[in-house]
């Protein structure tokens, strides 16, 4: 073919058996994605995932040809019968085959109910009202033409051969409906299906989010590669630093880099999370799941990737540097690195809820982390920080404080270094270094620092939960206030109060 080759893929659109087609042009491969009709079918499939008892579909056949429209509506009708669902669909000019699939029909004309009852009775109703459907004509076309008065010059012919306007035809049909048996029939009671439980929602969202993270190279895989490169750089720069007096500063600098800059890279997944937030916002409005399910699912799905990033690159930097080689010390190092990255991701979730634009969100998140980094106790020792604001409360709010102190306690306690200071002892212990050199708080163990970081992981996600809930509550109020402020004001001047121009 002159336009290129067509390679059908085995991609199912919503599990309905339609296949997406990938088009590759002659100038090179270019993925066009799915068509508009396939997107419409996927959107319908998304709405029926939760098996709602009542499903509203606004023009589900728009943009589809007659064959596709028939297959879509037939599948929906079959599913409605099988699941006991009630489907309300607004359809423009359905074909004869599609019209035959309707169980009930409601015809509205300018705020009036023309007919509401079984679709099979519509022809008889119109015939008895004086507007029979001509043979070989699509019934839906006849009904719409009869009650559409947008073109009022068109005239309908009544029972006795009289010429009447469309408005008169509508009044005749409305009166006929009011006196018909269809008005007296009550609708069947809708049986409400049980919605998926909280655990089911969380499990399904976790699997979906895990697959999305796996497929999106920018979410974790690119960060994984950059972390390996950075840890190789750190490991070679600080390679086998030994136990000299100069290694004290080197160890502290290396651990600070891990606590500050490696965790800072966690903001790289922010653009992908913003896209997840857009999907969450749409599905949340449709009532598919709650905020709690989304938060827990996002945390669970991210855990394996963050654990991999903490262990594999962390081991490269840790052992190349020559830090304490016991497995328990490295395990604590990896757990603190993992927890700190979870804290940063929770912080970026909060930023995403308040700043939906990914570029502004990255700038905001980087600024917040920069301020915390300055107060972490490395660039400026804790006792030297100005007490208003920077020491109290910023020093204790910054997660870098607990990450740095956890790393320092894990590394320095139990070690002894030669003392180069004149007049001092020949050696200096790790405890003395922590107390005097790094000004670390030794009143509690390193596990308390880890527990505080774990509490921050939970706290930041709870704050995200609360912020999303508040936004949901406040958005309608803000929109009402904006509508009132945008409403035009009307000023009425009394006669004679103003001169004529």
Automatic annotation (TrEMBL):
Residues 1-36 are annotated as: Disordered. Keywords: Membrane, Transmembrane, Transmembrane helix, Transport. The chain crosses the membrane at residues 217-241, 253-274, 295-318, 330-351, 358-379, 450-471. Residues 200-412 form the ABC-2 type transporter transmembrane domain. Signal peptide: none annotated. Residues 31-62 form the ABC transporter domain. One of its GO terms (molecular function) is ATP hydrolysis activity. The keyword Transmembrane applies. It holds the Pfam family ABC2_membrane. InterPro entries: ABC2_TM, ABC_transporter-like_ATP-bd, ABCG_dom, P-loop_NTPase, Plant_ABCG. Belongs to the ABC transporter superfamily. ABCG family. Eye pigment precursor importer (TC 3.A.1.204) subfamily. This is ABC-2 type transporter domain-containing protein. It comes from Oryza punctata (Red rice).
